[in-house]
């Protein structure tokens, strides 16, 4: 669960209570029951235009992209 976001990193807590810091260069925070236009446009650019959400691998890396992760 994300507990804090600042200009340099995201703090996330695991089910076990451990908190970790995840550094980032750019973050897009998108929560909704529908896919936001910016995410739909990105999905088209990476050929994921037939989905309701971005597809990721087991490490939450967006499929087809290097160094882009999704929580």
Automatic annotation (TrEMBL):
The keyword Nucleotide-binding does not apply. It is an enzyme of class 1 (oxidoreductase). Its EC number is 1.6.5.9. Gene3D superfamilies: 3.50.50.100. The keyword Lipid biosynthesis does not apply. Keywords: FAD, Flavoprotein, NAD, Oxidoreductase. It catalyses: a quinone + NADH + H(+) = a quinol + NAD(+); a ubiquinone + NADH + H(+) = a ubiquinol + NAD(+). One of its GO terms (molecular function) is NADH dehydrogenase (quinone) (non-electrogenic) activity. PANTHER family: EXTERNAL NADH-UBIQUINONE OXIDOREDUCTASE 1, MITOCHONDRIAL-RELATED, NADH DEHYDROGENASE. Belongs to the NADH dehydrogenase family. This is NADH:ubiquinone reductase (non-electrogenic). It comes from Brassica napus.
